Amino acid sequence: MIEEAVRFVINIPFGFFGSEAPEWLVFVHCSLIYGGVFMMAFISVLAFGSVWAERKISAWMQARLGPMEVGKYQGCLQTIADALKLLLKEDILPAAADKPLFTIAPILVFAGSLMSYVAIPFGPNLKVADLDIGVFYILGTSAVVVVGIIIAGWSSYSKWSIYGGMRAAAQYVSYEIPTALHLLPVIIMAGSLNLIEIADEQQFFIGPVDCSFLTWNLWPWINPFATVSFIMYYIASLAETNRTPFDLAESESELVAGSHTEYSGIRWSFFFLAEYADMFVVSALGTILYLGGWHGLPIPVIGPYLAPFFFLFKVLFLMFIAIWLRWTLPRLRVDQLTYLCWKVLLPFGMVTVTGTALWQLYFYKTPVGVILGTVIAIGTIWAMIKIYRSESIPEKGKPMARRDQVAATPS
Amino acid sequence: MFDFIFFVFSFVCIGSALFVAFTPNVVHAALGLASTFATLAGFYVLLGADFLAITQIAIYVGGILVLMLFGIMYTHTIARVSGEQVMMQVGPALLVVILTLFTLVATILSTAWPVKEVAPPAPTADRIGVLLMTDYLLPFEVAAILLLVALVGAVVIAQTPVRKSIEESVD
Q1: pTM of the model
Q2: What pLDDT score was predicted for residue A296?
Q3: Crossing angle, helix A134-155 and helix A159-190, to 10 degrees?
Q4: Which of A2, A137, A192, B145 is paired with B124 by a 20 to 30 Å CA distance?
């Protein structure tokens, strides 16, 4: 039924021209159907869901109720009401703005996010393009988003926006290289840039049962360096999606939304949609590279049919962590972000890439490697708990030194 | 099909290159350059060089263009960047342009271009990797050393005022 409907829509040009339909028309038509209908629908539903989830989760974390009025259950239709409001809003073009660029910027931002979806496989057969360089392609498309944000900041002719644009540029220069470096260990392990091959590399079956959850690249017994890389990639990906603690480019409390201060209505909602679309892309990339993609559901017969849902579940879980962090951590300063990316994530990236290469030679999926990796992981966690306890618990009868000093110094 | 896309790309590429040359607005010029880079990536895709195409986008649009815009934003007239189009040395420039054009056209016309059927795009990334580590190891390493030199140089240049101020405070 659905398949027939899809085939009918795709064949519309042939209906007008018969088999003589020009190839370019079929091409344009198919890309419009795919990009404009399927992916827009997916991203819209995703954004509606995650915006509502974000508001409810933030409310829950701050002991509030959040949206309660619209919709029968917990204000679940609030986002749709907001979207309608945005669509009906007046489209304001600032008088001093650079009009062509002001118009192009939201398109660039959203197109950059949309382009990434071409390369993401949602399941073993649920993919648009089996790109041989999928990881690299997704990294490349994120550049387009940043150019859009910078252009939005510049063309608005507003001081908040231009600071937002400058910060976005500084932020991109900071996180771009660490992100790529922390994807490299997995690429070394799989020996491929193809997302499907990388996911399949992490398969592990005991009989008919899919036990891939034991061999995800994330686990230290597969490669302890990849575990470090996963955490670092996740941090860098938060910077990529402009989420707190790295939302310098659009910090609401100091830059009044930064690069999109001057935007309103439907143009603004494109920035908003792009943020959630981007969150999904980086989480999906993390899932495929480190969490085994759609593999690892230990149900024998119907497991393969549930694979895309399991993939979505993992992606949404990573998105949930991003939301959780947003409502937990304060915002970093610009120089702190650059410090973090260049002086912490980058050296760690060099170590993990070199370490993975060596690990791959001697220990990858060998018994010695499994034991060594587990021992390293347990040792690290034990050391971290030890350090955390020694720092956080002050000795009896002795006030914490730092707090004392802060109180004594007049600000 | 390929012809159609090729002509669209050519049109956009040449058009935006001309736009870069003639617009007085620096930011507009930078965006025109982005469009030129992106369409060049499109040509690489048409030639089956997928890795090169994405490299073009990631390095030129992502790296160089963002740095350019970053640099423009740090100049003192960020809000309205506009330079005047000044024509200097029209005669010599025209001479050089005509000579270059003549040489290029003559070369293009006199070269026997190998024409092949359009082959289905094959993966290129692994072959590029193997070639970089075997046949082209020396250029690869030389490029790496060049980048390292640039990196160290940037650190040294950025460091100088700090060292001076420390020495002054010691004195």
Answers
A1: 0.82
A2: 78
A3: 180
A4: B145
